[in-house]
Amino acid sequence: MSRRDIGTDDPRVHVRPGKGSRPRTKKRPSFAHAVPGMVVAVDRGRFTVAISANCMVQAVKARALGRKGVIVGDWVGLEGDTSGTPDTLARIVTLEERQTVLRRSFDESEVGAREKLIVANATQMLIVVAARDPEPKRGMIDRAIVSALDAKVTPLLAVTKTDLDSVPALIADYEAVGIKVFTLNRNLYEATAPVPSPVETHPSHLAPRPCAPQLQELHQQLQGEVTVLLGHSGVGKSTLVNALVPGANRATGEVNEVTGKGRHTSTSAVALPIGSQGWLIDTPGVRSFGLAHVDAAGLLRGFTELYAIAQDCPRGCAHAADAPDCLLDEHPELALRLASFRSLLREVPSAY
């Protein structure tokens, strides 16, 4: 028996529209009632989000975010179980626009190298170096300052272990270019009994511990700010965090006597509440700090005193060592900074 053609006018026939003309029926949710919070830790796809002074929520990223990455410091919106009770999970459904993003390139020598996002929405970068053991490296300090200024983040410098060496030249050089410097010796850090981690405790319970004036000054500088700590392993970064934030309990380590380098004690970034309105973000120690994500113009802006002089250079001046009539060469008092700038200039994309 042949199949009867009943035609498209028959009410029993459903005609499926072509894919190209099919109307879109899925409505994207607005997530208008999502609970806001700040990401304070990331661990293998799990996110710890602070939604209030005394509530930390574990969350996973929702499919609605697609491939958007979420990092410490991000402000997000949560749905699901936001009670913060053990063994519960919320979903991160929205990601707020970042005000600042700190990043570094993996490979210092390769232009266009892959980048790593360090932290979002920081307002300050505290660059931590040791006066000795390990020796301070100006190149690392300059790289960090350039990266901070490129991200519109205020750079600060903390020099630890000044009981071993006062490094007056280092301090004077960076203060002269407008970097606020804090000097700290190991005798400032007073041991206290272990207390619960501040990520799990009401921040109002975390009063600053008694300390010397230098540490009090630094503590005051961090109030109401989101400050990321950056430094090589072994410079005393975790020890400093423990002194500033009671209950942080960050692991500390010694410097290898053979290599002169510290070992990693912090394995991932974590944001810790400091005072009533501030956040201190401890990051793993860095071995290198590539600047391939910064162009030559951005690099020059990171050397503020050189940038001011360069405004009067001949048009199109590349400011390299072989650049004719470069006015930067007429300031011998800036020779050390100029050498650092030109060393980094070989690593970044040209903008001239």
Automatic annotation (TrEMBL):
Keywords: Cytoplasm, GTP-binding, Hydrolase, Metal-binding, Nucleotide-binding, Ribosome biogenesis, RNA-binding, rRNA-binding, Zinc. GO terms for cellular component: cytoplasm. Binds 1 zinc ion per subunit. GO terms for biological process: ribosomal small subunit biogenesis. GO terms for molecular function: GTP binding; GTPase activity; metal ion binding; rRNA binding. Residues 109-289 form the CP-type G domain. Residues 120-287 form the EngC GTPase domain. Residues 1-13 have a biased composition (Basic and acidic residues). Its cofactor is Zn(2+). Residues 1-30 are annotated as: Disordered. GTP binds at residues 160-163, 231-239. Its EC number is 3.6.1.-. InterPro entries: G_CP_dom (IPR030378), P-loop_NTPase (IPR027417), Ribosome_biogen_GTPase_RsgA (IPR004881), RsgA_GTPase_dom (IPR010914). Zn(2+) binds at residues 313, 317, 319, 326. Residues 14-30 have a biased composition (Basic residues). It is found in: Cytoplasm. CDD domains: YjeQ_EngC. One of several proteins that assist in the late maturation steps of the functional core of the 30S ribosomal subunit. Helps release RbfA from mature subunits. May play a role in the assembly of ribosomal proteins into the subunit. Circularly permuted GTPase that catalyzes slow GTP hydrolysis, GTPase activity is stimulated by the 30S ribosomal subunit. Belongs to the TRAFAC class YlqF/YawG GTPase family. RsgA subfamily. This is Small ribosomal subunit biogenesis GTPase RsgA. It comes from Mobiluncus holmesii ATCC 35242.
